[in-house]
């Protein structure tokens, strides 16, 4: 639509945030290294392009940048497949099956990324 000169497209920052959450009360997600590995294994930019057609920015905390209380100093996890593999190995999770319910397109877009880590 942006290329169509007959359409005036108005944009503004939104208030929604997509995020990956973990139940840290149960194995294997009670292990910090497993949670960190899964976080490093998510390619946020690829999800933004595939699911949101490039209209978005990677979240690094639960508060959108447009809201009071947003803290830009929060450390973000970069997409780092090698670091994810190393952390899974340290955690003894190299070839394990993880159950994940599929809730929406964003969740589905993360699924193919797990294969290189031996996770299904």
UniProtKB/TrEMBL annotation:
InterPro entries registered for this protein in UniProt: SBP_5, SBP_5_dom
Residue ranges of domain Solute-binding protein family in the record: 2-96
Family annotation (Pfam families): SBP_bac_5 (PF00496)
Transmembrane residue ranges: none
Gene Ontology terms, MF aspect: peptide transmembrane transporter activity
GO CC term, one of those recorded: outer membrane-bounded periplasmic space
Keywords, in A-Z order: Signal
Keyword Translocase attributed: no
GO term, biological process aspect, one: dipeptide transport
Keyword Signal among record annotations: yes
Family from the record: Belongs to the bacterial solute-binding protein 5 family.
Protein name per the record: Dipeptide-binding protein
Annotated source species: Raoultella terrigena
Lineage: Bacteria, Pseudomonadati, Pseudomonadota, Gammaproteobacteria, Enterobacterales
């Amino acid at each position: 639509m942006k290329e169509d000169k007959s359409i005036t497209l108005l944009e503004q920052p939104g208030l929604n945030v997509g995020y990956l959450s973990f139940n840290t009360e149960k194995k294997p997600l009670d292990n910090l290294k497993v949670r960190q590995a899964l976080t490093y294994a998510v390619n946020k930019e690829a999800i933004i392009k595939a699911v949101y057609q490039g209209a978005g920015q990677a979240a690094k905390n639960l508060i959108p940048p447009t809201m009071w209380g947003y803290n830009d100093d929060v450390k973000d996890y970069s997409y780092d497949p090698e670091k994810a593999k190393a952390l899974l190995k340290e955690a003894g999770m190299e070839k394990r099956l993880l159950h994940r319910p599929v809730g929406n397109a964003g969740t589905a877009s993360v699924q193919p990324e797990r294969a290189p880590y031996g996770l299904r």
